[in-house]
Amino acid sequence: MPVSLELLPTLPDLGCVAGVDEAGRGALAGPVSAAAVVLPADCSIEGLTDSKKLTPAQRARVAVQIRASARAYAVAFVSAQEIDQINILQASLRAMAEAVARLPDGIEHVLVDGRHCPELPCPATAVIGGDARVACISAASVLAKEARDAWMRYCDLQEPCYRFARHKGYPSAEHLRALSEHGPGRQHRRSYAPVRAVLEEQAA
Prior knowledge:
By secondary structure, the chain is an alpha/beta fold.
């Protein structure tokens, strides 16, 4: 059940806590990524907030601090093909569960950004707006975004006509023009409406 931000200060001591967030749900191409991060109780990372509020340069600097400060962290991906098979919500939850599974043993509670929690072997709480207010979730937001952006830069080398390094697979005007001109590539999510529309046009 989601928890409002106002209720967070009343939560009891949850023991060893991991924050979890995803990146890439709204993209037309590429995987969805998720990160899980365990921060020390006294951790202070300058500039740490929701990854969407940071510039690429700021996010890169914060990511370095997170990796240096975290007790543990892990990242997982679910591919575009899997997204088409199981839908983006289930793919996001699968990536989150995989990221948590890659952490060392001993995680006692997981705080997840948003309204939904994956199935996990430990208790979990969905926190609405957690990526902007809960440090371990903010850290997960940053690492998930950094990892996915790096993957999309690699995809740009494989399929340069789409300019993935510039828009990271999101539906920018440039991306939509390339999609219309070249048709869907290996990284495109064929279940997403703009991609599906191009496929239908090609088949007509």
